[in-house]
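Protein 1 of 2
SEQ + STRUCT:
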Amino acid sequence: MNLEGPVDGISRGNFDVGIRGLSLIAALFAFWLLLSGHYDTWLVSVGFVCSALVGAFMWRLKVLDQEGYPAGFLVGAVTYWPWLAWEIVKSALDVTKEILKPRLEISPTVVRVTASQKTSVGFTTYANSITLTPGTISTTVSFDDHTILVHALTREGADATAEGTMDRRVSRFESGL
């Protein structure tokens, strides 16, 4: 029996997409309620209809997959995004200190790091996180050998990237922990 193909108009893939679509609509509606702050009947119903329309458009465009709506990453995001925000603040302060020194002591360094992520979303999150952190930028991303070429403003920044703390945090984010 083919679990991926249609069986009387229903397939395992459609069931997964249906659950993913409903959770997307619920998440969009909750986000809308949070940002709106208005809870009268008309506005709440408009918010729900808009959320349902976005869900329907995503279903129609066939982008309700793991990449288009990575619902499994929501749990890991609760711990990863605050950690990344703090890393960005720390790096911004380090870069500011380097720039404001009377004698500029930067040591531009390029290092190749290996990514341990198992999904394209995780790998892309890792490369983007490196770029978001001031003082480092992902210059080349290779999906073939799972490596990222990183340019760092200082040798210390390159060493910190190569050390792998961010890689481990992104892998935990990817696994939903």
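Protein 2 of 2
SEQ + STRUCT:
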Amino acid sequence: MLPRPRALSAKKAAARQEQLRRLDFRRELLSARESLALAQNHLDQVTDPEMIDCCIYQINAAQLHYQVLLKQARANSDIISRELID
């Protein structure tokens, strides 16, 4: 049996790293979307004025985080599928 060329295994390793990077980004984007939904749900449930303010801050932060990730996804359209961006 002939030994495999090292370049091929390096290419596979690089492809695997890229696949993992995309998967991590997808998870982060989905997590940010879920955090935003949870913050919005929490706002619907609270009645205390201070808690309402807190929820509004959480929603603003979650929206900003999600928007940043969407910009990154659009800039690198190969990172993630279109259904998560739109």
